[in-house]
Amino acid sequence: MLKSKLAIAIDGPAAAGKSTVAKIVAKKLQYIYIDTGAMYRAITHKAIINDIDLDNGEELYQLLKKTTIDLQQGAKEQKVFLDSTDVTEDIRNQMVTNKVSVVAQHGLVRKEMVKRQRELSKKRGVVMDGRDIGSHVIPDAEVKIFLIASVKERAERRHKENTKKGYPSDLKQLENEIERRDQLDTEREISPLVKASDAIEIDTTSLSIQEVSEKILEIVKRKGE
Ligand SMILES: Nc1ncnc2c1ncn2[C@@H]1O[C@H](COP(=O)(O)OP(=O)(O)O)[C@@H](O)[C@H]1O
Ligand SMILES: Nc1ccn([C@@H]2O[C@H](COP(=O)(O)OP(=O)(O)O)[C@@H](O)[C@H]2O)c(=O)n1
Which value does ipTM take for this structure? Predict the structure, then answer.
């Protein structure tokens, strides 16, 4: 058992395996898992439903201010509640996936999200995954991991996931979407996707989920002793 509770930041591009291993690590350490991507997805979902102009940061910010987003650990999976409605499935749809990086570019939206995320991480004992966790949200996180994998491998992983769930899926289209989202996330002006200087990079392309989780737990163990 670790002597003290830590904050573990896991960042990286789309479908690198962040949430999968973050959940495993959190369960093993009995930490809280916080999926910050789900928060950006939830506000994107609400904005689409309300026909908000996704290029209008001020309007999105006003919408976010009057919106509650709750992440709750269920028996099997983490549930996402948007103003008390379970949107766990809805926020993974194609429309949200294609638009979320546009919403996440706005400074006002990010400022409000970061405020909420810092509040959630204050008590430590958290595994938080996203794009700017180690670089911006919790710059003093005790453990910072940056997960990468080739675009081809990431698209194949998502394709497998979609097929398993019975969703229509096109590998080439997934590759294009992942590349486009990575580009938007990396090139945006405010807290872009970047590896923090003190983050440990793990290339997961040829590693199993178990191998990646074990590597992270080993790093955590060294830090926590
Ligand atoms: N190391 C790995 N090897 C093979 N498949 C993986 C690995 N890590 C994650 N996956 C699978 O890849 C898909 C995307 O992983 P996910 O955790 O959702 O990525 P992210 O949170 O980075 O977007 C999931 O279906 C997951 O089961
Ligand atoms: N900390 C974060 C987390 C997500 N995001 C945005 O939210 C999108 C969806 O995040 P996600 O983690 O659900 O993405 P996947 O890689 O799981 O598809 C990302 O592509 C980013 O545009 C962000 O800007 N900052």
Answer: 0.98
